[in-house]
Protein backbone atom coordinates (compact mmCIF):
# COMPACT_ATOMS: atom_id res chain seq x y z
CA UNK A 1 0.00 0.00 0.00
CA UNK A 2 1.19 3.48 -0.86
CA UNK A 3 1.69 6.04 1.91
CA UNK A 4 -1.13 8.66 1.90
CA UNK A 5 0.02 12.25 2.52
CA UNK A 6 -2.22 14.50 4.68
CA UNK A 7 -2.39 17.02 7.51
CA UNK A 8 -1.87 15.98 11.06
CA UNK A 9 -4.21 17.13 13.78
CA UNK A 10 -1.56 19.51 15.12
CA UNK A 11 -1.12 21.11 11.69
CA UNK A 12 -4.86 21.62 11.35
CA UNK A 13 -5.06 23.20 14.79
CA UNK A 14 -2.16 25.53 13.98
CA UNK A 15 -3.81 26.54 10.67
CA UNK A 16 -7.11 27.21 12.39
CA UNK A 17 -5.38 29.32 15.05
CA UNK A 18 -3.55 31.38 12.41
CA UNK A 19 -6.80 31.92 10.49
CA UNK A 20 -8.57 33.00 13.67
CA UNK A 21 -5.83 35.54 14.49
CA UNK A 22 -5.85 36.94 10.95
CA UNK A 23 -9.65 37.18 11.00
CA UNK A 24 -9.60 39.04 14.32
CA UNK A 25 -6.98 41.49 13.04
CA UNK A 26 -8.92 42.01 9.83
CA UNK A 27 -12.12 42.73 11.75
CA UNK A 28 -10.32 45.26 13.98
CA UNK A 29 -8.96 47.06 10.93
CA UNK A 30 -12.39 47.09 9.30
CA UNK A 31 -14.04 48.33 12.50
CA UNK A 32 -11.42 51.09 12.89
CA UNK A 33 -11.87 52.24 9.28
CA UNK A 34 -15.66 52.28 9.71
CA UNK A 35 -15.43 54.36 12.90
CA UNK A 36 -13.00 56.82 11.29
CA UNK A 37 -15.34 57.17 8.30
CA UNK A 38 -18.30 57.78 10.62
CA UNK A 39 -16.39 60.38 12.65
CA UNK A 40 -15.32 62.16 9.46
CA UNK A 41 -18.93 62.24 8.22
CA UNK A 42 -20.10 63.69 11.56
CA UNK A 43 -17.29 66.25 11.46
CA UNK A 44 -18.26 67.31 7.94
CA UNK A 45 -21.88 67.80 8.97
CA UNK A 46 -20.86 69.83 12.02
CA UNK A 47 -18.45 71.94 9.96
CA UNK A 48 -21.19 72.62 7.41
CA UNK A 49 -23.57 73.74 10.18
CA UNK A 50 -20.93 76.06 11.63
CA UNK A 51 -20.23 77.57 8.21
CA UNK A 52 -23.95 78.10 7.53
CA UNK A 53 -24.46 79.75 10.94
CA UNK A 54 -21.44 81.99 10.45
CA UNK A 55 -22.60 83.05 6.98
CA UNK A 56 -26.13 83.81 8.25
CA UNK A 57 -24.81 86.00 11.08
CA UNK A 58 -22.40 87.67 8.66
CA UNK A 59 -25.25 88.54 6.29
CA UNK A 60 -27.30 89.94 9.18
CA UNK A 61 -24.50 92.07 10.59
CA UNK A 62 -23.48 93.40 7.18
CA UNK A 63 -27.07 94.65 6.79
CA UNK A 64 -27.34 96.10 10.32
CA UNK A 65 -28.65 99.67 10.23
CA UNK A 66 -28.90 102.46 12.83
CA UNK A 67 -32.70 102.47 12.97
CA UNK A 68 -34.76 102.21 16.13
CA UNK A 69 -37.68 99.82 16.53
CA UNK A 70 -41.13 100.65 17.87
CA UNK A 71 -42.59 97.81 19.93
CA UNK A 72 -46.09 98.72 21.04
CA UNK A 73 -45.04 102.33 21.55
CA UNK A 74 -41.77 101.46 23.28
CA UNK A 75 -38.83 102.80 21.25
CA UNK A 76 -35.97 100.31 21.19
CA UNK A 77 -32.37 101.28 20.32
CA UNK A 78 -30.98 100.21 16.97
CA UNK A 79 -29.01 97.49 18.77
CA UNK A 80 -29.76 96.04 22.19
CA UNK A 81 -27.46 93.86 24.28
CA UNK A 82 -28.85 93.52 27.79
CA UNK A 83 -28.69 90.52 30.16
CA UNK A 84 -27.84 88.12 27.34
CA UNK A 85 -30.59 89.44 25.07
CA UNK A 86 -29.25 90.55 21.69
CA UNK A 87 -31.24 92.07 18.82
CA UNK A 88 -30.79 94.74 16.18
CA UNK A 89 -32.35 96.34 13.12
CA UNK A 90 -31.31 95.30 9.62
CA UNK A 91 -32.25 96.19 6.08
CA UNK A 92 -31.99 94.52 2.68
CA UNK A 93 -35.36 92.74 2.48
CA UNK A 94 -36.48 92.61 -1.16
CA UNK A 95 -40.04 92.78 -2.46
CA UNK A 96 -39.91 91.53 -6.07
CA UNK A 97 -43.69 91.03 -6.27
CA UNK A 98 -44.53 94.47 -4.85
CA UNK A 99 -46.50 93.02 -1.94
CA UNK A 100 -45.70 95.91 0.35
CA UNK A 101 -43.06 94.01 2.33
CA UNK A 102 -41.03 96.35 4.55
CA UNK A 103 -37.34 96.62 3.62
CA UNK A 104 -36.28 96.64 7.29
CA UNK A 105 -36.69 93.99 9.98
CA UNK A 106 -35.56 93.10 13.49
CA UNK A 107 -33.29 90.12 14.16
CA UNK A 108 -32.63 88.51 17.53
CA UNK A 109 -30.22 85.74 18.54
CA UNK A 110 -31.40 83.69 21.46
CA UNK A 111 -29.37 81.03 23.27
CA UNK A 112 -31.21 78.40 25.31
CA UNK A 113 -28.73 76.64 27.56
CA UNK A 114 -31.18 73.90 28.57
CA UNK A 115 -31.61 72.92 24.90
CA UNK A 116 -28.01 73.70 23.91
CA UNK A 117 -29.37 75.54 20.88
CA UNK A 118 -28.80 78.94 19.33
CA UNK A 119 -31.95 80.37 17.73
CA UNK A 120 -32.43 83.14 15.19
CA UNK A 121 -35.68 85.09 15.49
CA UNK A 122 -36.82 87.45 12.76
CA UNK A 123 -39.53 90.09 13.08
CA UNK A 124 -40.69 91.25 9.66
CA UNK A 125 -41.24 94.87 10.66
CA UNK A 126 -39.54 97.41 12.89
CA UNK A 127 -42.95 98.56 14.09
CA UNK A 128 -44.56 95.83 16.21
CA UNK A 129 -47.59 95.51 18.41
CA UNK A 130 -45.81 93.41 21.01
CA UNK A 131 -47.85 90.35 20.05
CA UNK A 132 -46.19 89.68 16.71
CA UNK A 133 -44.79 86.17 16.36
CA UNK A 134 -41.30 86.01 14.83
CA UNK A 135 -40.00 83.49 12.34
CA UNK A 136 -37.78 81.18 14.39
CA UNK A 137 -35.03 78.85 13.21
CA UNK A 138 -32.18 76.91 14.84
CA UNK A 139 -28.79 78.27 13.85
CA UNK A 140 -26.75 75.73 15.81
CA UNK A 141 -27.30 72.85 18.18
CA UNK A 142 -24.96 71.15 20.68
CA UNK A 143 -23.90 74.64 21.80
CA UNK A 144 -22.47 74.21 25.29
CA UNK A 145 -21.55 77.85 25.92
CA UNK A 146 -22.45 81.12 24.20
CA UNK A 147 -21.57 84.74 24.89
CA UNK A 148 -21.94 88.01 22.94
CA UNK A 149 -20.10 91.26 23.60
CA UNK A 150 -19.85 94.47 21.55
CA UNK A 151 -16.68 96.28 20.50
CA UNK A 152 -16.61 100.08 20.40
CA UNK A 153 -13.59 99.73 20.34
CA UNK A 154 -13.44 98.54 23.96
CA UNK A 155 -15.32 95.36 24.78
CA UNK A 156 -18.69 95.95 26.44
CA UNK A 157 -21.22 93.47 27.82
CA UNK A 158 -24.16 95.88 27.49
CA UNK A 159 -25.36 98.20 24.73
CA UNK A 160 -26.34 100.99 24.96
CA UNK A 161 -23.99 101.35 27.93
CA UNK A 162 -25.06 102.79 31.26
CA UNK A 163 -23.79 106.26 30.37
CA UNK A 164 -25.95 106.55 27.24
CA UNK A 165 -28.84 109.01 27.16
CA UNK A 166 -31.76 106.85 26.05
CA UNK A 167 -33.90 109.95 25.50
CA UNK A 168 -31.56 111.17 22.80
CA UNK A 169 -32.63 109.90 19.38
CA UNK A 170 -29.15 110.05 17.92
CA UNK A 171 -27.73 108.12 20.86
CA UNK A 172 -30.12 105.19 20.57
CA UNK A 173 -29.50 105.02 16.82
CA UNK A 174 -25.79 104.45 17.33
CA UNK A 175 -24.25 101.09 16.49
CA UNK A 176 -21.05 99.73 18.03
CA UNK A 177 -18.16 99.07 15.71
CA UNK A 178 -18.45 95.33 15.95
CA UNK A 179 -19.63 92.30 17.89
CA UNK A 180 -17.74 89.36 19.31
CA UNK A 181 -19.27 85.91 19.70
CA UNK A 182 -17.67 83.19 21.80
CA UNK A 183 -19.19 79.74 21.61
CA UNK A 184 -18.35 76.17 22.46
CA UNK A 185 -19.77 73.50 20.17
CA UNK A 186 -19.11 69.81 20.81
CA UNK A 187 -16.24 70.67 23.13
CA UNK A 188 -14.50 72.99 20.63
CA UNK A 189 -14.17 76.73 21.32
CA UNK A 190 -14.83 79.26 18.57
CA UNK A 191 -14.55 83.04 18.40
CA UNK A 192 -16.30 85.04 15.68
CA UNK A 193 -15.83 88.76 15.04
CA UNK A 194 -18.24 90.81 12.92
CA UNK A 195 -18.01 94.43 11.82
CA UNK A 196 -20.91 96.86 12.26
CA UNK A 197 -19.89 99.92 10.27
CA UNK A 198 -23.04 100.71 8.28
CA UNK A 199 -23.01 104.40 9.27
CA UNK A 200 -23.36 105.62 5.68
CA UNK A 201 -26.93 104.29 5.67
CA UNK A 202 -27.98 106.78 8.34
CA UNK A 203 -26.36 109.65 6.45
CA UNK A 204 -28.26 108.69 3.29
CA UNK A 205 -31.51 108.44 5.26
CA UNK A 206 -30.99 111.90 6.72
CA UNK A 207 -30.23 113.39 3.30
CA UNK A 208 -33.32 111.82 1.75
CA UNK A 209 -35.63 112.36 4.61
Automatic annotation (TrEMBL):
InterPro entries registered for this protein in UniProt: N_methyl_site (IPR012902), Pilin-like (IPR045584), T2SS_protein-GspJ (IPR010055), T2SS_protein_J (IPR051621)
PANTHER family associated with the record: TYPE II SECRETION SYSTEM PROTEIN J, TYPE II SECRETION SYSTEM PROTEIN J-RELATED
Keyword annotations of the record: Cell inner membrane, Cell membrane, Membrane, Methylation, Transmembrane, Transmembrane helix
Pfam (any one): N_methyl
GO cellular component: plasma membrane; type II protein secretion system complex
Family the entry assigns: Belongs to the GSP J family.
Main location: membrane
Record localization: Cell inner membrane
Parts of the chain that traverse the membrane: 12-30
Organism: Acinetobacter amyesii
GO biological process: protein secretion by the type II secretion system
Protein name, entry field: Type II secretion system protein J
Entry membrane topology: Single-pass membrane protein
Keyword Transmembrane assigned: yes
Domain of life: Bacteria
Amino acid sequence: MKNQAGFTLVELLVAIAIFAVLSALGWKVFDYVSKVKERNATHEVRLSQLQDAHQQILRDTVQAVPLTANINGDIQPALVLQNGRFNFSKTGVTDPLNQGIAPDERVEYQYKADEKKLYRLKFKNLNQTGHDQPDSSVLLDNVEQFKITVLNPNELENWPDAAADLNNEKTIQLLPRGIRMQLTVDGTNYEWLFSLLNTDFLLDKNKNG
